[in-house]
């Protein structure tokens, strides 16, 4: 069955960096686009970044553009989210998802907290 497992979250100070990973299994990883979403307390889930199946196309929300980088390693069946210059407003649960415009499978999420 399809499984997506996120890791790499944690507590970081403002201005710091984290790299999230999402390991995939149960499907042909290389033919699917992958996305990262986040949900902060009391807010709706929002798209953070997505990457095409080839890795040749990426897309970012305006709030993270130039700070976050999405990438993928098909040999490891893993998608990454490098997060730099983190801000308190980046605090959220981050979810990995399969797809570009239609997201049909989701991971369990990993908590990212940006605080002094």
Give an overview in words:
This protein is mostly beta strands and 116 residues long. The strands form 2 sheets. Strands 2, 4, 5, 6, 9, 10 and 11 form a 7-stranded mixed beta sheet that branches. A 4-stranded antiparallel beta sheet has the order 1-3-8-7, with no helix packed on it. The protein has strands at 3-7, 10-12, 18-25, 34-39, 46-51, 58-60, 68-73, 78-83, 92-98, 105-106, 110-114. The chain contains no helices and 11 strands.
Taking all Cα atoms into account, the compactness measure Rg is: 13 Å
Uncertain spans: none
Structural class: mainly beta
The major beta sheet can be summarized as: 7 strands, mixed
Can you write the helix and strand succession as a string? Answer: EEEEEEEEEEE
Q: Per DSSP, what share of the residues sits in E-state strands of 2 or more residues?
A: over 45%
Tell me the helix content: under 10%
SS element count, helices: 0
The beta-strand count equals 11
First and last CA, distance: 40 Å
What best-fitting shape do the alpha-carbon axes yield?
Answer: globular
Mean pLDDT over the full residue set? 98
Task: Please name the defining characteristics of this protein.
mainly beta; globular; four-stranded antiparallel β-sheet; 116 residues
Q: What would a concise description of this structure say?
A:
This protein has 116 residues and is mostly beta strands. The protein is 0% helix and 49% strand.
């Amino acid at each position: 069955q399809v499984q997506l497992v996120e890791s790499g979250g944690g507590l970081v100070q403002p201005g710091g960096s984290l790299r999230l990973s999402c390991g995939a299994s149960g499907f042909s990883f290389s033919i699917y686009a992958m996305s990262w979403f986040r949900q902060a307390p009391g807010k709706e889930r929002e798209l953070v970044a997505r990457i095409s199946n080839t890795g040749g196309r990426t897309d970012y929300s305006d709030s993270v553009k130039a700070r976050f980088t999405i990438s993928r390693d098909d040999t490891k069946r893993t998608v990454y989210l490098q997060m730099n210059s983190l801000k308190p407003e980046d605090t959220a649960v981050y979810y990995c998802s399969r797809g570009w415009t239609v997201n049909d499978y989701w991971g369990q999420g990993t908590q990212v907290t940006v605080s002094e």
